[in-house]
Amino acid sequence: MKHPSHPILTRLAKASAVAAGALAALVLAGCVVTSVYPWYTDKDVVFDPVLVGTWSTPESKTNEFWQFEKFDGQTYKLTIVDSDDKRTEFDARLFTLDNRRYLDFLPRDREGGGIPAHYLMRVDAVTPTLELTLLDYGWLEKLVTAETNTIRHTFVPKPIGESGNGDLVLTANTAELQAFLRKHAANTNAFPQPTKLKRR
What we know:
This protein is an alpha+beta fold. It is built from 4 helices and 12 strands. It is globular, with a radius of gyration of 16 Å. It starts with 6 loop residues before the first helix and ends with a strand.
């Protein structure tokens, strides 16, 4: 499976796979789950100052890193820097659902005036290490292909000449997304082994 063709997704995938050492969902699936609607409501959003800082994998020997800064209210500015020193910035919100914590983040670069996609990570720990797990694209693609009514979605056609079903995009509203998340929050196929990052 190829990485999504959108430049932000491509850069995110590259930065994540390197800076975060081996985010299992990205490496194994090669794609990132995107949603039109946010995964949170305002009442779900929290702010944890411990998350603020710069993080990288213990074995990293390059300048790749993930940096969380307090931005506006309860929003973080997430900056990912990859091995080519390319910076990708996101608005990130930490939220709680059934005593589990997640990050919803969307790109600040709105290329071509398009609608920004929401991405999701489960936050398994912040101290002593930051543990993040992406919702697995490959697992979700198989699920919605086998059970089309599982959650509202669409496949955005790939560019002419490329093979495949297209890029999976969730079109369910926030209430539906949260119901889906509650159902699969503890599913180790939906959320594979987390990646552990240390503070720099």
